[in-house]
Amino acid sequence: MSIKERVQEELEALEAILMDDISVTYDEKGCPKLIKSTIFPSTANEVNKQYVCATLEVRLPEEYPDCEPIVQLRNPRGLDDSTVNDLYKSIKEKCTEYLGQPVIYELIELIRESLTESNLPTCQCAVCLYDFSDGDSFTKTQCFHYFHSFCLYNHLETTKRHYQEEQDKLPTWQKATKGFQAICPVCREPINCDVEELKTALPPKDLENAQNFEVTSDLRVLQDRMKQLFSYQKSKGGIIDIEAEENKLLLITESTDEGSGDTNADPGPSDGALEADIQRGQRYDYPVHSGLNYR
Ligand SMILES: [Zn+2]
Ligand SMILES: [Zn+2]
């Protein structure tokens, strides 16, 4: 059997087993280009108990299976870097072990097993930056991001209040017609959470036990250093004063063709002189009788 036939057989078997859970794209020559499968832990189809997932992407070099496939894990969710790195190590070992034989199904099973084992978010809460401890109540969004329920509630309430404040400042015609849509603080996907339920959650343990913030001498030193840096940057023009910028009507730029203006100018500002002055950022208040209409 040729290499191509062997690969075709492997892919057909995969599609028969995994059905919609796997997708294979082919190049213009009909060779498999990319095999993709999003893998979840085995939780006996209890989707709401799947806390982690990852998408496996496999590219097959022409010599596959006599050489190793190129494997990548995309969008690992609920997994910290060290868990992902360990997974990559096991994948590499499996590929070496299966050199010369079909390995894709083995990889999928390996990843699924590993996800089932670590089916608890090992990442931090993106709001408070503390880990998830035993007993903490946490929420998984539809986009597979994790937050302490307490943190997510506070985040949603704050963004909603901020949204309302911004809306209140706008004239009626500019107000959004749609109401507030909560979005994930990490990836900005729209999320729908039961806010009333989140509201009842207790603060995460690590946050409760955290020491009160104190300005230490180290912090003071850092503050002083930052203050100096700020003044230095300001003196170099590196800090933009937003308020001053908003009141500025014209930008000051250097004119490269200064003096090349109208040489037959009448007394008073000619078009050329006016242009040069505008470029220098100066402002003209024309007397009404000048007949010029630059507005
Ligand atoms: Zn948190
Ligand atoms: Zn998200």
UniProtKB/TrEMBL annotation:
<dbReference type="GO" id="GO:0010468">
    <property type="term" value="P:regulation of gene expression"/>
</dbReference>
<dbReference type="GO" id="GO:0008270">
    <property type="term" value="F:zinc ion binding"/>
</dbReference>
<dbReference type="Pfam" id="PF05773">
    <property type="entry name" value="RWD"/>
</dbReference>
<dbReference type="GO" id="GO:0016567">
    <property type="term" value="P:protein ubiquitination"/>
</dbReference>
<feature type="domain" description="RING-type">
    <location>
        <begin position="125"/>
        <end position="188"/>
    </location>
</feature>
<keyword id="KW-0863">Zinc-finger</keyword>
<feature type="region of interest" description="Disordered">
    <location>
        <begin position="253"/>
        <end position="282"/>
    </location>
</feature>
<feature type="domain" description="RWD">
    <location>
        <begin position="9"/>
        <end position="118"/>
    </location>
</feature>
<dbReference type="GO" id="GO:0009893">
    <property type="term" value="P:positive regulation of metabolic process"/>
</dbReference>
<protein>
    <recommendedName>
        <fullName>E3 ubiquitin-protein ligase RNF25</fullName>
    </recommendedName>
</protein>
<dbReference type="GO" id="GO:0061630">
    <property type="term" value="F:ubiquitin protein ligase activity"/>
</dbReference>
<dbReference type="GO" id="GO:0033554">
    <property type="term" value="P:cellular response to stress"/>
</dbReference>
<dbReference type="GO" id="GO:0051246">
    <property type="term" value="P:regulation of protein metabolic process"/>
</dbReference>
<dbReference type="InterPro" id="IPR001841">
    <property type="entry name" value="Znf_RING"/>
</dbReference>
<dbReference type="GO" id="GO:0005634">
    <property type="term" value="C:nucleus"/>
</dbReference>
<dbReference type="InterPro" id="IPR039133">
    <property type="entry name" value="RNF25"/>
</dbReference>
<dbReference type="InterPro" id="IPR013083">
    <property type="entry name" value="Znf_RING/FYVE/PHD"/>
</dbReference>
<keyword id="KW-0479">Metal-binding</keyword>
<dbReference type="InterPro" id="IPR016135">
    <property type="entry name" value="UBQ-conjugating_enzyme/RWD"/>
</dbReference>
<dbReference type="InterPro" id="IPR006575">
    <property type="entry name" value="RWD_dom"/>
</dbReference>
<keyword id="KW-0862">Zinc</keyword>
